[in-house]
Amino acid sequence: MAKIRIRLGTVFDDPEFFEVKMNCTKCGKCCLNTQMELLPEDIERITKLGYRLTDFAVFDGEMWRLRNVDGHCVFLNPQTMQCTIYENRPIGCRLYPLVYDDVEGPYIDKECPAWNTVGRNEINRLGKYLPLFIGRARQTNQWVRLRYGVRT
Predict the structure, then answer these.
(1) Mind telling me which PANTHER family this protein's record contains (predicted)?
(2) 129 vs 29: CA distance, rounded Å
């Protein structure tokens, strides 16, 4: 699958930058019952692959998120436990297991089996972007309304 490049003029235009360096086991656990937020950049990239917004995204009243089907992300192949759009997956998926809490700040989610392979330098490198990521995710609904005319 080809990598899709999207330029909306934000810091999130370069998805590869947001890859957390770790020893991922590709277990797929992070794709089960996901509540992954979507950015406008993610939606543009995925729709350029030929998917319709409603194929892969749902609005939960606050944010646009990846759709779950049978308890897993719509893009997870449950037989192989592989992401079917891996090269074009959302920024939040690339950042995981780095997550953000308004009180704690950035931290590593210990639900990820490979959490201990994420170095402190990755928290330092990417942690400052997590508040921006959350803010951008909160803007996605307005962007979807303007871009697609979807009323939520």
Answers:
(1) PUTATIVE-RELATED, YKGJ FAMILY CYSTEINE CLUSTER PROTEIN
(2) 24
